[in-house]
Design brief:
483 residues; alpha/beta; 5-stranded antiparallel sheet
Length: 483
C-alpha cells in the first residue's frame, strides 16, 4: 500500500474539469480563492473530447458531403455523384486536430498559469473536508478543502442486456475514433447524440437505422414529425420500437430484435440511450452528501448539497445535460458560497439545440405548457413556415418553421425553431424572455436583411400591427377609414 502524501489546504476544491469545473475553477481563481482542480482523465471533459466539439466537427464534414451530392441542383457539373466516397481517416484526423486546437486553451499548464492547482487522478472523499486523489501511477495525495464544487458530469447509459450480450458497440466516447466507414449502422436512441451522429453517417454513405419510440422525444410533436420526414428523405430508417435483445451473428454482424419482433442486422451499433450522472465512485457517503445513483447528487435551488460547504453543478446533479447549463451552474455555485446573497442556480430558461440539418432549438415553455397556462384569448402562437422566410428560400432550406408563444401582454413565453441557424436564433429569444422584452419590440429593432433573424423582426411587426386595430388606436383607425 503506497504512502499518502499530505497535500495543501485549499479554500475551494473543484472535482471534475469539464465545462462546469473549468468555469468554476477559473472564476474562483479570479476572485482570489486558493483553488484545486481535480480531474480523473483530461481537462475539458466530455464536451471537448467526446461531445460538443467532435460532434460538430463531424456534422460539418457530413454537411460538406451532403452539399457536394446536392451540387448539381446549383449548376455544378463535371463529376460523377455515384463515385463520391468519404475517407473516414481524413474525417477522423480533422476532428482530432480540432479537439486539440480547442484543448490548447484548457491544458493543466494554462490553468496553473491562472493560479489553479491541477491534480490529475481519481477523487474520493474521506470526510466532509478531506479528499484523496489517486494518480495514474498509484500514488495518493490528501487535500483539505474549506468548500467543494462537484462537477463530475455524466457517462453513457448502457442497457443491462446490451452489456451482458457481449456484442461490440460504440458510444459517444469512442465513435469519434472510427477510421473506416461502416456499410450499415444501427443507432439505439434518438436524442441529440443519436440523431446528429446518425444523420452524419447516413450522409457519409452508411445505411442508418434508428431504433427509438420517437425521433427527438423531448421535442414537440411537429418538430419530431418534421425531422422524421427529413431523415426519411435522406434514407434513414426509423423503427419506432425499443430493442429487446441483441447478438452477434456467425458472420460478425450485429442482429437486434425489437419489441414487435422486427429483426435489424447491421455492421456496427451506436448506443445513444441517454447518460447517467457520475457519482458512485466519489465515496460521497463519507462526506454525508446525499445522492441517487441514477438521479445524481441532491442539491437545492442555490446548488448546495446536504452538506452546507459542498455544492454540485451540471450533469452530476441530474440537471438538463448541456455544456452551457453546466458552466452557468458552476459559476453560480462559486458565486453563492463566496457572496453573502444567493442567486438561484436552477432555471427552466435553458436554450437547447440539436444540431442536425435542419437544427432543432427551443427555449422557455413548450406549446403544450403554454396552452395550458395561457388558454385561448390569453395566449397566442406566431407561426411562420420556413417556406415563408426569404433567407431559407434562397438557401433552398425550406423544411421547418419558426414558432413563438406570447401572452396577451405581448411577452414571449417560449419558442421553437426548426431551421438552419436555429441554435443562433434561439439565443435572441432567450434574452427577450429573461428581460421581459415584448414580442412587439423585436419589430422595432432593425435586423439585417436577408438574415435568418430578419423574420423575427417581421413576426414582431406583424403582432404590433395587429395590436393597432384594438383599443383607442383601433378606434382612430376606424375613424380615418370613414374620412
Amino acid at each position: 500500500m503506497s504512502e499518502i502524501e499530505e497535500g495543501e489546504q485549499f479554500s475551494v476544491i473543484i472535482i471534475g474539469a469539464g465545462s462546469g469545473g473549468l468555469t468554476a475553477a477559473d472564476f474562483a481563481a479570479k476572485i482570489g480563492a486558493k483553488v484545486a482542480l481535480i480531474e480523473a482523465k483530461k481537462l475539458g471533459g466530455d464536451c471537448t473530447w467526446t461531445g460538443c466539439v467532435p460532434s460538430k466537427a463531424l456534422l460539418k464534414a457530413s454537411k460538406v458531403v451532403h452539399s457536394v451530392r446536392k451540387s448539381p441542383d446549383y449548376g455544378v457539373e463535371g463529376f460523377e455523384l455515384d463515385r463520391i466516397k468519404v475517407n473516414m481517416q481524413v474525417v477522423h484526423d480533422r476532428i482530432h486536430s480540432i479537439i486539440h486546437q480547442i484543448y490548447e486553451e484548457e491544458t493543466p499548464e494554462v490553468f496553473e498559469s491562472r493560479g489553479v492547482r491541477v491534480f490529475q487522478g481519481v477523487a474520493s472523499f474521506e470526510d466532509e473536508h478531506h479528499i484523496l486523489v489517486t494518480r495514474e501511477d498509484g500514488s495518493k495525495v490528501r487535500l483539505f478543502g474549506a468548500r467543494f464544487v462537484i462537477c463530475t458530469g455524466a457517462r453513457p447509459n448502457i442497457p443491462k442486456f446490451v452489456k451482458e450480450s457481449g456484442v461490440p458497440f460504440y458510444t459517444y466516447e469512442d465513435i469519434f475514433d472510427v477510421t473506416e466507414l461502416p456499410e450499415s449502422l444501427l443507432v439505439v436512441g434518438s436524442g441529440p447524440i443519436g440523431c446528429e451522429i446518425g444523420q452524419s453517417y447516413a450522409r457519409f454513405g452508411s445505411k442508418v437505422t434508428i431504433v427509438a419510440r420517437h425521433i427527438m422525444a423531448k421535442e414537440e410533436p411537429e418538430a419530431q414529425e418534421t425531422m422524421k420526414k427529413v431523415f426519411e428523405k435522406e434514407g434513414i430508417v426509423h423503427l419506432p420500437h425499443r430493442m429487446k435483445s441483441v447478438k452477434t451473428t456467425e458472420d460478425g454482424m450485429i442482429e437486434a430484435t425489437l419489441e414487435d419482433g422486427t429483426v435489424v442486422v447491421a455492421q456496427k451499433m451506436l448506443v445513444a440511450s441517454g447518460r447517467v450522472p457520475v457519482v458512485s465512485n466519489l465515496n460521497l457517503e463519507a462526506a454525508n452528501v446525499e445522492y441517487d445513483p441514477q438521479g445524481g447528487i441532491k442539491t437545492n435551488d442555490i446548488l448546495r448539497t446536504s452538506v452546507k460547504h459542498i455544492y454540485g453543478a451540471g450533469d452530476c446533479i441530474g440537471s438538463e445535460q448541456f455544456t452551457h447549463y453546466a458552466g452557468f451552474q458552476a459559476f453560480m455555485a462559486v458565486r453563492n458560497f463566496i457572496l453573502p446573497s444567493h442567486d438561484k442556480g436552477k432555471t427552466t430558461l435553458v436554450p437547447r439545440c440539436t444540431f442536425t440539418d435542419p437544427e432543432v432549438a427551443s427555449v422557455g415553455m413548450s406549446e403544450k405548457e403554454f396552452r395550458e397556462k395561457y388558454p385561448e384569448g390569453k395566449g397566442h402562437v406566431a407561426y411562420w413556415p420556413a417556406a415563408k422566410i426569404d433567407r431559407l428560400i434562397t438557401d433552398g432550406e425550406t423544411e421547418g418553421y419558426y414558432k413563438i408563444f406570447y401572452s396577451s401582454d405581448k411577452k414571449i413565453r417560449g419558442a421553437v425553431f426548426v431551421c438552419s441557424r436555429a441554435g443562433e436564433l434561439i439565443n435572441e429569444i432567450a434574452v427577450c424572455i429573461h428581460h421581459g422584452i415584448k414580442f412587439t419590440e423585436l419589430g422595432r429593432v432593425i435586423h439585417n436583411y436577408p438574415s435568418f433573424g430578419f423574420a423575427l423582426q417581421q413576426m414582431g411587426s406583424e403582432v404590433a400591427i395587429e395590436g393597432l386595430f384594438h383599443g383607442i388606436t383601433g378606434k382612430l383607425i376606424a375613424l380615418l377609414k370613414k374620412v
